[in-house]
Amino acid sequence: MFSVQAEAGTPSHMFETSDTDFESATSRSFRGSVREWFAVNLPAGWMTAAHQSPTDEAAEIEFLRNWQSRLHQAGWAGLAWPKDYGGRGASLIEQAIFIEERDRCKAPIEIAIIGTQMVGPMLIKHGSEAQKTRYLPRILSGEEVWCQGFSEPNAGSDLAALNTRAKEVDGVWQINGQKVWTSRAHAADLMLLLARTDTEAQPHRGITAFIVPMNSNGLSIRQLKQANGSREFSEVFFDNVIVPQEAMIGATHAGWKVAITTLSVERVATSRAFEMRRLVCDLVRNLREHDWDSAIDGALGDEILKQIFEAHAAGLTFQRYIAEMANSNTVGVESSITKLFTSELGQRITSTAMSSIPGVALKHRVAPWQGGELSWPLEFTNGLKNTIAAGTSQIQRNIIAERLLQLPRQRA
Ligand SMILES: Cc1cc2nc3c(=O)[nH]c(=O)nc-3n(C[C@H](O)[C@H](O)[C@H](O)COP(=O)(O)OP(=O)(O)OC[C@H]3O[C@@H](n4cnc5c(N)ncnc54)[C@H](O)[C@@H]3O)c2cc1C
Q1: For the chain, percent of residues with pLDDT exceeding 90
Q2: Contact 53, 371 (CB under 8 A)
Q3: Which atom of ligand 1 is least distant from the CA of 155?
């Protein structure tokens, strides 16, 4: 099942490791130090009623920037990056252990995650030395937060259809167009932008990648308000935005390689396999606080039992996949399998919670900003996003069908 063809463009250093055993003495010791660090450093009262959650969006961003700085000082930011670029040079197994421990205690997610998990590894592979020197240290420290300017109103699953234009005028690049669903654009300092630089070529051959400061003249941001109140993503408009030649990543019209590197790492980085164990434990704990005996009676009990097994299986499958990736140095179709399975499982667990925990919708706050308290309505609405972000479930099914099951390729 795991011997599959690699996706082109994966940065191989991300997957170099000699240790493929999650239970080895080295892994256990690493897990111990991560667990201890979180126990000591999580904000006071984290995930209990005693925790003082940020009260608005600005406070949330400040809280997350502070958290990023603590991760950096402790050497946990850029875990996978080579030591030469300021990272920890951690093995793939260690990276997975870190995510497992982070999700076990529902620690805050890095605000600089697009930088540390996607832009950094991409720049190490495709960036110039000047770009690496200028941008990498500030990604790690959290001084500069990045956002990802890929999706457009008519280019999401079909990313190569993107239409934002970059034109070379008098030695600089002039950008016009629109991006959408740009996570944390309002909190970001820089954007990794994909723009069309050749309208005559085949769609994926006419794209170039750029670094765009978010305070550029002509760039405007309109935050989108979601049903749960969150305004985490935005529309971003470019009206004659100018960037210099040095802002281009790689060669002109070679942006598709940058996109592939970024997207293949994204699917692994955003895996929620370990989060499922925590979710299902929270579900059982909350039901136990009420009428556990009637909860486990009949169809609901069967469903919860199934979800417990599925959550455990998701974690084990992800571990197995990581071990396989560590051996093969490639990202394969397994990233689509775990992404598809865990994002859909998350929806089943949160739906069960919403329908079975008495009074859940009334008692739990739906603070859109990330706080250290459990909110099932928020988990439920977040779950809805997870089958869309980083490639929809349908797209993951297409990938599995074509690359793993070798079914005939879908025709437009
Ligand atoms: C939480 C979240 C965060 C995001 N953050 C970012 C970000 O920071 N930067 C960024 O650039 N983008 C971001 N996105 C956008 C995301 O990448 C897109 O939403 C996603 O790729 C789907 O594109 P779309 O929304 O245009 O839907 P479409 O591509 O229009 O798809 C609409 C529907 O058609 C289905 N469909 C489309 N093509 C096929 C096909 N070939 N076969 C079968 N079904 C198909 C889809 O599965 C979907 O159900 C984010 C999205 C979410 C939900």
Answers
A1: 55
A2: yes
A3: 26
